[in-house]
Amino acid sequence: MNQTRGILFIVLAVLSFLLFQAYIEDTAPKPQPNETVTTAHNSANTASDQANAFSISNDVLKLTINSKTGDFIGADLLQYDRTVEEKVPLTLLSNNPDDYLRIVNGLAGTGGTDSQTSRADFTVASSTADSVTLTYTVNDVTYNKTIKLEGYQVLVTYTVENKSDRTLEIAPYSSFVYRPAPSPSLFSTSNIYGTNQSYAGLVISTDSDNYEKVSNGDIEDNDFKPLTSKYGWTAISQHFFVTAYVPEANNQFTISTNYHNNGDYIINTISALQNVAPGTTVTLSDKYWIGPKLQDQLETVAKDLDLVVDYGWAWFLSLPLFKLMQFLHSFINNWGITIIALTLVVRLIISPLSRIQFRNQALMRVIQPELAAANERAGEDRMRRLTETQKVFKKYGASQFTGCFPALIQMPIFLALFYLVNEAVELRHQPFLWIKDLSQADPYFILPILNGLVMIFMFSLTPMPENMDPMQRKIMKMMPYIFVIFFLFLPSGLILYYIVSNIITILFIVYYNRKLKYLYANNLLPTYKVVDRPITAPRRKKK
């Protein structure tokens, strides 16, 4: 019975958590345009993009650049399909109105390439397969902008050669211009970025806060105040993928936001002004990450950038579980089997708690005849009934509450695995048996139904007490069927974990039920001395 209540508590807690998340999403304010004037350095020119599109690529990333302005107008992830059905590269930067995102960048300041009213007029000076150098000369100042790909990193180097007789002021800037993509369908196998349980939007890291989410509502309402920092980054999170800008190290920068009347959200990051004296050359460097949330690589790009893999409050459990899953996959090379192996290892780790839980549960079951006899001796006297029941418990070392603590320990582990499966890009589009994508719900509902059948059998192994309230009894009988509905909404990988975990639970229950029944029937259970005297308050000692 303790096991049943523990499972009920875990699932109800998780269900309440997910329902609260859904409520927050549904009640979030919808974009309402204001009258902010669009500035030249973050406005899009579709005709210019089409006429001046220039692409560079490597094995994993194809980046499309406006060769006239140097803006990033397209990015295709060559090793990630758009959907399970569409075997074309997933696009992170795009002019598509449904998932619009572009990166406007350059040099601001009185001696920069861009201003509020004009942009640079670059031309292509040289290029290779994975890099391009753009050049622009005006008023005896030559600007070279080199863009080079290194995996999913995009390195941008500005070289300013000042042949004029005046001192220039320049500051690298980068602007994310985006429109939120529509929420994905819960059961769709063609989701682009992931499930609607994941956060999508602006994330920033500064000296004062290494990881901060900024909601679209805060941007719309002008509630986000500009922040200045010496270290950090800005990023647009899209569940399994992220587009991040990392300013040059040790160079102070300011982050500000805006919302335009055409529906664009603008995230501006501008570094502090630097002087370029006459007759000198200055080189400045920035970098971007445009790609999947690969934790091992993200943490090498910038400090705390791996936090965009959002494990929520359960990060201290999800992170080691992810490392363990990675380790197991290095030997198994199949993500479905890896989840099964992860389940076995986790259950092995918590087996001491499981032993206490299931042994006590089986013990409570076999001593029911003695508990019934104790209640019969007590009659209608509630106090005596409690006393007689406690005597039986003390005799065998049993407890009504021993099974609750292990169940409470397992609840954060379950939530940690929920975050892990929901955030691990490694599981995206990974097949297992009939499942095409372990990060999405089972489109045929086979796993949820199978899990329901396993749970029905598991519940049958823990019969309900005869004196249980009739309404509570009905609810308990309905729980396996409620679980089937509940698990329809969860990623297949998580349900696979839970099925295997429930099968292990069944093995524990069967083993300890048989063992304790045998020990009790043969008077082999250890018993403890019970003092048969009335319970009275302790007497005070005389001084």
UniProtKB/TrEMBL annotation:
GO MF terms, alphabetically ordered: membrane insertase activity
Keywords: Cell membrane, Chaperone, Membrane, Protein transport, Transmembrane, Transmembrane helix, Transport
Biological process according to GO: protein insertion into membrane; protein transport
Bilayer topology: Multi-pass membrane protein
GO cellular component terms, semicolon-separated: plasma membrane
Main location: membrane
The keyword Transmembrane is assigned to this record: yes
Cell compartment(s), UniProt: Cell inner membrane; Cell membrane
Domain Membrane insertase YidC N-terminal per the UniProt entry, residue ranges: 55-324
InterPro entries: Membr_insert_YidC, Membr_insert_YidC_N, YidC/ALB3/OXA1/COX18, YidC/Oxa/ALB_C, YidC_ALB_C, YidC_periplasmic_sf
Membrane spanning residue stretches: 331-350, 401-421, 441-461, 481-512
Gene3D superfamilies: 2.70.98.90
Residues covered by the Membrane insertase YidC/Oxa/ALB C-terminal domain: 335-513
Pfam families membership: 60KD_IMP, YidC_periplas
HAMAP family: YidC_type1
Quaternary organization: Interacts with the Sec translocase complex via SecD. Specifically interacts with transmembrane segments of nascent integral membrane proteins during membrane integration.
Family note: Belongs to the OXA1/ALB3/YidC family. Type 1 subfamily.
Role, per record: Required for the insertion and/or proper folding and/or complex formation of integral membrane proteins into the membrane. Involved in integration of membrane proteins that insert both dependently and independently of the Sec translocase complex, as well as at least some lipoproteins. Aids folding of multispanning membrane proteins.
Name of the protein in its database record: Membrane protein insertase YidC
Species of the source: Psittacicella melopsittaci
